[in-house]
Structures are given as structure tokens and as C-alpha cells.
Design brief:
4 helices
Length: 103
């Protein structure tokens, strides 16, 4: 349950972090779309993959805790995996949004 609860904010971080890259990689497709709603849908379809991967990764990391022989060690491993996934997403987000705003 704890892994599921923490998976949502980590997935949101990864979704927000991947928006600039999605815009950059698919700008030619975006330019052909007729309205803002279609653009938003395209970007959402592109950012759901990294967000979904982070969501699944946190769930898998919670298995380190759930099936650990030593619950304290399993919890520590879960926290390290959770913090690492969140930190990498946050750093990539800072870098990608900074790159987008400073271009």
C-alpha cells in the first residue's frame, strides 16, 4: 500500500519532467495539429510512458520491502529506490524545463 501511495507523486514528477522532451521530439507533429486540445492529447500520450514506467518501478521497488527476509533492510532498500527514482526525475525535470525556458 505504501508503495502504491508513493508511486503517484513520483509518476507526476516524471510526467512533468518529460513534457519539454516530448514537445521537442514531436514538434513537427504538434505543428500539424489543428487546436490546443489535440496538442495537449498528443503530449499526454507521449509523457504517459515515462510516468507509467516510474509508477511501475516504484511498485517493483516496494516488492523489495514486501518480500525481504529482514523487513528493516527491505524498507531501507525500498526508500533508496524510491528516493533515487524521484531524485532522477526531479533532476531531469529541472534540466529539461531549464533547457526549454533558456532556448
Amino acid at each position: 500500500m505504501v508503495g502504491h501511495v508513493f508511486a503517484y507523486p513520483v509518476a507526476v514528477v516524471w510526467a512533468m519532467a518529460s513534457i519539454p522532451l516530448a514537445i521537442h521530439l514531436f514538434i513537427d507533429e504538434i505543428d500539424l495539429l489543428p487546436d490546443e486540445e489535440a496538442i495537449g492529447q498528443l503530449v499526454v500520450r507521449r509523457v504517459v510512458w515515462p510516468a507509467g514506467a516510474a509508477f511501475v518501478l516504484v511498485h517493483l521497488a516496494s516488492l523489495l520491502w514486501a518480500f525481504a527476509a529482514d523487513p528493516a533492510l527491505g524498507f531501507a532498500r525500498f526508500l533508496k529506490a524510491l528516493a533515487g527514482t524521484a531524485a532522477i526525475g526531479a533532476l531531469l525535470g529541472i534540466a529539461s524545463w531549464s533547457w526549454l525556458m533558456l532556448r
